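The data are set out underneath:

___
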Amino acid sequence: MNSFNSALGKNITFVRPAYFIISGFSGIPNIKYYYVFLCFVYVVSVLGNTVVMAVIYLDHNLRTPKYIAVFNLAFVDLLGSSALVPKLLDIFLFNHPYISYNDCLTFLFFCFTFLFMQVFNLVALSYDRLIAIMHPLHYQVKVTHRFMLSLIASFWVFAITPVLIAVGFLTRLSFCRSVVINSYFCDHGQMFKLACNDNTPSYVLAMLVIALFFVFPLLFIVLSYLCIGYALSKVATAQERYKAFKTCTAHLSRVAIYFIPLLITFTLSSGIHPNARIINISLSSVFPPMLNPIIYVLQTQEIKVSVKKLFKVRKES
């Protein structure tokens, strides 16, 4: 830590390599088929999320606080997939594992910003369902368009700020041991471990980020649904309980798809094979954006009605 503090006050030259090497999987034959599969997932994700955003934009009945959050979720999924998958395919499918120092930091910034925003979108939708079910009479007052837009804007700031700090800390590190990153992208955790000077600030920030962007959001979502379950238990009829809970199924499906692979990775972090870790994290990065539009179109009545209405208008015209 002392070397880091002294570096802030003195003109010290840091060892910055011309490039990094993204190692990816090791010892797996025919792994290129996996990247072809990711390419297919990416195409479906782009098409699906574009459709969801278009439907919400074109149908004025969907201009509600809930669908502002859903629109932002689709927007983040589209940008997140586009930031990660094309570069991933270029590195591994077209055999370009070398990435320049500045490009690697840029790659890291966009990947983590969109990854964190996916979590915050799930938190926003969880809060929306919590108020809608626990305080239905006050929902229109508590969850307004202005509130949801302000919440999402604050989430963007909160997601970008720690990533900028992480990139700043990485620029204060000297990489004189190795330039091989044992991951499928410019992973912050794998990068600061390559440093040959004090990486304590990066390590502390990494632990803080896990708490702020994984543990606390998951706890909030779990507590929200415990409160929702308690509220639904007070509802008179089973049919009303089912109808209220059905409005949560799309969000719950997305939460499970996003968090379960990460829970497995973090729980077994010490004993999990590097290849298994890469598969878990890569699937948790690309699968939710692909499944998000499928889940919301199939499980959300308003979007299904809107899609049918738009297709009917287009057919008649």
The two ends are 68 Å apart (CA to CA). Residues 232 and 241 are 6 Å apart (CA to CA). The chain is about 75% helix and 5% strand. The beta strands are 19-22, 98-100, 180-181.
